[in-house]
Amino acid sequence: MAECLQKLLAIRGAKPLCAVVDHLRSWIGSILHELDIPAIGFFTSGACSAAMEHAMWKAGSADLGEIGNESRLLPGLPDHMAVTGSDLKRRPFGHSGRRHPSPPPQPIGPPPPSPESELPKPHMGRRRKGPPAPGDQPHWFQEMDGFAQYLYNTCHELEAPFIEYLNEAFGKPVRAVGPLLPDKYWKSTRMGSTFRDQEVRVKRETNVKEEEVIEWLDCKPAGSVLYVSFGSEVGPTIEEYSELAEALEASNRPFIWTIQLGSGPFGSKFNSDENPEQGFYPHGLQERVGKKRGLIIHGWAPQLLILSHPSTAAFLSHCGWNSTVEAIGCGIPILAWPIRGDQYHNAKLVVKHWAAGEFVTDDFSKSVNKNDIARGIEDIMGQEEVKKNARAISVKLENGFPVTSTDALNAFRDSILRAANS
User: Where along the chain is composition biased (Basic residues) (predicted)?
Assistant: First the structure.
């Protein structure tokens, strides 16, 4: 890798002023250091998850393990983000809800070098161990020590106290430069219009066209539809999917349920059992509820279109960062069902800091059942205060890309230019 970078620099002529590195590939920083190129750490997630992981590590796993039914304040963070016994109840890392076990963790360091390789020694063969357990040191903290600055895919309007915490913790500039969403998304927020995903996102395999989704939503009363999606990387277990299907059927509420490919062994996305690797299929659900009440999408779904449509009332989500920001930017409250990693902290951000959602259960170490889901659906669809809070947060983003993030990007640029000219 170092040799490749050196060759690239030789072709370029001028040395880059800096290099922005994904924090999941932090080993590149040591290579850049050898080449005398300032490295900038970039987090694609929000600031809350990093701040919570760091603060819980400082609190200590031994102390956190003794919380029980009490709570533990985290110095530097808001009181409502105190750690509770429920926060520590998580399913083991490795669960993905897929037919096969989760793939092996990807290496943080480069592939094992050949004998003549000159790759830096400290990170050779190092592999991720997954998200830290509550109270353990975040794996990214020490590895990112060599970065000059840190960029986060968030904004002060959403996460001010967590950005401030990280500034203190890192002792280096932490700049909120997001949320990094398509420009047309920000234009739609300014105009208050429904967003068309097909204009900015690559078309993926699906059983429903975007026009069909619009037509279906247009026929529903304002604020009546529950949108359900767990993203493309993780999801519930097969048993939990079955419980979810039963809860949606019993709710008597209109819903859109997006089921990603590979979400289970029972059938394919095209109403067929010919390819059981394609994903979970809720046999008979569509027929029982009818297409007027339930729209089941197998594969890709136009999520921003659904979230920005006035008929959508709430979002049952795993709380991945992008999904969380997209929902809150549209003023949609979230029924939080985190599966792993930063999703637990994102869920707490939604429920406790923004007060714009509810947890589907208070014990995520156990399987989520039909009663949990049914209760959660009624809570999220009926709580006007939560809906009001979600709308209030979206107002902060209705004028387009946040001014604070533009200022942060300008400050980042200026700092790099100053360093280059010093």
Answer: 91-101
